[in-house]
Amino acid sequence: MKTLSIATTTLLLTLAACNDDLKTGAPVPEGRSATAMLRTAAGADAGRATATEVADGIRITVDASNIPAGTHGTHVHTTGRCDAPDFTTAGGHWNPTERKHGTMNPQGPHQGDLPNMIVGTDGRGTIALTVPGATLASLLDADGAAMVVHAAADDLKTDPSGNSGGRIACGVFQPA
């Protein structure tokens, strides 16, 4: 009987500890995700981006289509709006850590700075990476966030946007 009582007490204390994490605003559990359906300024489908919470940050995957062949800067932007024709309503790069632009900038990068995407003659391109330290809760804050594909390659160092040109596709992240 004493063994049963100790086991029951241990179980109840463990459950209470788990419940406390939910009340304190703990990070979103691993595996939760958000999706952004990319569209061109003309409204054509341009693929999708997925952000998934993982143990060390957010795993972002972009599967683009209907994009001109070449190298394109890709970034997460601060605001979940994609008003055509220029998508400037998406704001600047997502930068909750207040760093400078670019992975080649010693004071960077923004959390929204992603690698350049190489698009083939079939109009398709893919990138995938983990943004260390990022959280889905931060990405999906009150004004949301958007994935943007730019017209040109990002030089990975020039603040604020890497000279990556105009915005040619955009999608607003929505919880999955």
Question: What's the short story on this structure?
Answer:
The protein has 176 residues and is α+β, with helices and mostly antiparallel strands.
Describe what this molecule looks like in 3D:
- Residues 1-28 have low confidence and may be disordered.
- The radius of gyration is 20 Å and the shape is globular.
- The chain has 176 residues and is α+β, with helices and mostly antiparallel strands.
- The protein has a single domain (33-175), classed as Immunoglobulin-like.
- The chain has a seven-stranded antiparallel beta sheet with strand order 5-8-9-1-2-3-7, with no helix packed on it. A two-stranded antiparallel sheet has the order 4-6.
- The chain has helices spanning 2-23, 136-139; strands spanning 33-40, 45-54, 57-64, 70-72, 74-77, 117-119, 125-132, 146-150, 167-175.
- The protein is built from two helices and nine strands, in the order αβββββββαββ.
- The termini are far apart.
- The longest helix has 22 residues, at 2-23.
Distance between the termini: 47 Å
Spatial order of strands in the largest sheet: 5-8-9-1-2-3-7
User: How much helix, percentage-wise, in residues?
Assistant: 10-25%
What's the story with the biggest beta sheet? 7 strands, antiparallel
Label the structural class: alpha+beta
Please state the oligomeric state of the protein chains shown: single chain
Radius of gyration equals 20 Å
How many beta strands in the DSSP annotation?
9
**Proportion of β residues?**
25-35%
CATH hierarchy class name: Mainly Beta
Uncertain regions: pLDDT < 50 for 5+ in a row?
1-28
Order of helical and strand elements: HEEEEEEEHEE
Provide a count of the helices: 2
CATH topology (fold) name: Immunoglobulin-like
CATH superfamily: Superoxide dismutase, copper/zinc binding domain
If classified by CATH, what would the architecture be? Sandwich
Mean pLDDT: 81
Number of domains: 1
The general outline is: globular
Organism: Sphingomonas carotinifaciens
Protein name: Superoxide dismutase family protein
Pfam families: Sod_Cu
Family: Belongs to the Cu-Zn superoxide dismutase family.
